[in-house]
Amino acid sequence: MSLTFTGERFLPECAGEMVYEHWHRYLIAQQYVRGLRVLDVASGEGYGSHLLARDAAAVVGVDLSADAVLHAASRYPAANLKYIAASCIQIPQPDASFDVIVSFETIEHIMEHEAFLREVDRLLAPGGMFIISSPNRVEYSDRTGYKNEFHVKELDRAELKTLLDPFFPAQQWFAQRAAFHSMVWPVDAVANSAVALTADGESGFPAEVYFLVFCAREATRLAAVESQLSLVTDRELSVYSEWSRTYRDNAAMQAEIKALKADAAARASLPHVLVTAPAETSAPAPLRDATLVRWAKKLTGSH
Questions:
Q1: Which residues contact 239 (CB under 8 A, 6 or more apart)?
Q2: 68 and 190 co-located in one domain
């Protein structure tokens, strides 16, 4: 079966910056699951669990939606991968049965935050690692005024840390957001560092829209987590290409609007002639100006 995009779950067929954001998290997590038992909480469409299964010994994807689970199991069959339908606060798996648990863009969809963390703590094996992402309420919602209808309880950094501390005192925090940059990289060597620059001399790192946190009970478990800047794109540069196309279209429309306004101003300066339609004619006079007709078609998408 196929899933329909509703805005609640990401689908690989989606477009725009969310493609980079969702894949990026799983691509980072993939670096830390080789040969390990992995649980993907709120696995959704299944693409992320499938990616992790390329390197993990075994992966279990769990999602509340039975339809999502059926879709994932059908689309991503693999011997070391299975999907189950369950609540994230009551997952039918044995205690301490996973070496790595990932949960991306989950916590903001539920009210039972502490119950969820207790369940993660129960399922995580000694020496295990928990990787969680969460939107930063300050930047995601408060500053923009945007309200995601599927988010019931967003957190800021202090609130998320307060939630994690009792269960996982060892934490390594990363910030995430989609952004446009000019990239310069060595072509004859491997890049060994990264720097973000701006013309005004301030930090080139923007405000964080999402947090990505590596968590563990002991600090030694996070020693292998690299503190590095990570970039994700696709071969087609799809987001930049779409932005460029939209920018060109907008520039063309703005130019046409400017021309229409100038034409309207010129017409307004001419003497007006009142034309009275015959009494028996109730239909409005059709648009005769070719420029206005063309513009109306652009606005309505008609041809």
A1: 16, 17, 19, 20, 178, 233
A2: yes
